[in-house]
Each structure stands twice: as structure tokens, then as C-alpha cells.
Specification:
259 residues, mainly beta, outer membrane lipoprotein receptor (LolB), chain A, 13-stranded antiparallel β-sheet, 4 helices, 13 strands, 14% helix, globular
């Protein structure tokens, strides 16, 4: 399959229980196209990033679908494959299969319609994780803010302000009734180098609260014209001395499609 080819019309089997939410997110579309003048008033790092990532004339899609492969740490590092639909500022569903002791664990994480959910089963039969509620939704809303690095065509869903240095920019989203802000570090060519945020969660069983979270983009690639991060690592405690112990996600993007 080509790097930019995704079956955008098909709901992944892992997300069957969230199929209506998937279809609603996948159907979000826009007739607008990108032009440099749309970002002329944004902070310079944001302009550098978006002009690098989005060619002039590209549809400013409301919905982006991504396929990926990699490893996720569930006790030990486990291989996974996944598809994700992202609508910046509105919602996402990450549907995946991971392999634990040679057995498939399938399911999804989502944020949609202001609610969050995690639902995972081994062999499609035995519940492994089922979680809903306010804490899950707040954590998922923070994750959604960070997903802008894979869906730059949704940049208008955020307010962009200057970051801590000339290479940083902050995007602030209204998600689930709260503000969620992510700070991006942008390289000299306009490439996304990393993202940082204070995300709601309970890493390693800590009390629920806001903790450092982030991702690092190691390489980039063109997908259907867009220039996006191609290999990523992510986790809690990003940017602190505890980052190595907090890392739980390593992925390579294999395909991207716009709605």
C-alpha cells in the first residue's frame, strides 16, 4: 500500500463498538484550502511549521486518518498496529491490536462528544481494560491537543501564541469545556521536533492530576503531500530527568489520508 493510502471509508474492527463515533469524526470535512496568508498573523514558529507541512492548495481537512505500527509498553514492550481518526479540537479514536504473550489484545482509546473511553479485550473476549468517566475524558482531551502534530490541517482549531523561545509556539484548544495547551518546538526547516503539555492523568498509579507529557519526532516524511513526523516516541515526564522511565510509546507512521 502507498504511504498515503488509507481505507478512509472503513471502520477498523477494533473500533466496532465505537463505529458511530468513528464515522462522525471521519465525515468532518472542509472546502477550504491552505494558503500562506492564512497563517500570516501567527507566531513565526507556527508559520514556519505550517508552511513546511502543508503545501499551498491542500484541503484544510477537518478529519485526518493515520495508520501506524510500533511498540507500546504494557509491562514489557509489545508490538502493535493501529489506525486513528483525528479531528483537532473535537475528537479522536485510536484503534489498535497489541500482542501480549503471543495473544492479541484489541480495542480503542477515544475522545468524542465530550467523553472519553478506553475499551480493550484479549482475543476479543476477555476484558483487559474498560475505563470511562471524567478523569478518562480529561486525560484524553490532553492527548487530543498533542495530536495536532499529525493533523496540522486542523491548526485553526487552536489559538497560537509565542512559546518559551524563538523556536517554540503554544496552541491552546477548547476541549471538553476546558483549555488544553500544547507547546511545540519547531526546527529550522519547519519540522516538528517535539511537543510538551501538562496532561491530566495518573502515571504509574500516582493520584490524578496534571503531569508532564510529550512526544519527540525523530524523522519526518511526506504523506499525500503533507510533511509530517514519521517516527515518534511519547510518554509521561517528558522533558524531565524521569523521561526514560515514562516513555511508553514508539511508533512509525505508515499512511495518512485527509477526509
Amino acid at each position: 500500500m502507498r504511504a498515503d493510502a488509507v481505507r478512509a471509508d472503513r471502520v477498523p474492527a477494533e473500533a466496532r463498538q465505537a463505529s458511530e463515533a468513528w464515522k462522525q469524526l471521519a465525515d468532518v470535512a472542509s472546502t477550504d484550502v491552505f494558503a500562506p496568508e492564512l497563517v500570516a498573523q501567527l507566531p513565526e514558529p507556527a508559520r514556519r511549521w505550517l508552511i513546511h507541512a502543508i503545501p499551498t492548495g491542500t484541503p484544510l481537512s477537518g478529519s485526518v486518518q493515520v495508520t501506524m505500527r510500533g511498540e507500546i509498553r504494557l509491562g514489557a514492550w509489545r508490538r502493535f498496529s493501529a489506525r486513528q481518526v483525528i479531528v483537532p479540537g473535537a475528537g479522536y479514536i485510536w484503534a489498535a491490536t497489541a500482542w501480549v504473550a503471543g495473544l492479541p489484545v484489541r480495542g480503542f482509546d477515544r475522545f468524542s462528544a465530550g467523553t472519553g473511553e478506553m475499551r480493550w479485550r484479549m482475543l476479543g473476549l476477555f476484558p483487559v481494560v474498560t475505563a470511562v468517566g471524567a478523569d478518562v475524558a480529561r486525560s484524553a482531551a490532553g492527548r487530543l491537543a498533542s495530536e495536532i502534530v499529525l493533523a496540522p490541517t486542523g491548526f485553526r482549531s487552536a489559538i497560537w501564541t509565542a512559546g518559551r523561545s524563538a523556536d517554540h509556539v503554544i496552541g491552546t484548544f477548547q476541549i471538553g469545556g476546558e483549555e488544553e495547551s500544547v507547546e511545540l518546538r519547531i526546527g529550522p526547516l519547519g519540522e516538528v521536533q517535539s511537543a510538551f503539555l501538562s496532561r491530566w492523568g495518573n502515571p504509574d498509579g500516582a493520584p490524578f492530576g496534571r503531569y508532564p507529557f510529550g512526544c519527540t519526532a525523530h524523522t519526518e516524511q511526506q504523506y499525500g503531500g503533507l510533511t509530517l513526523p514519521a517516527t515518534l516516541t511519547a510518554g509521561w515526564w517528558w522533558g524531565t530527568a524521569r523521561q526514560p522511565e515514562g516513555e511508553f510509546f514508539r511508533a512509525r507512521i505508515t499512511a495518512v489520508a485527509l477526509s
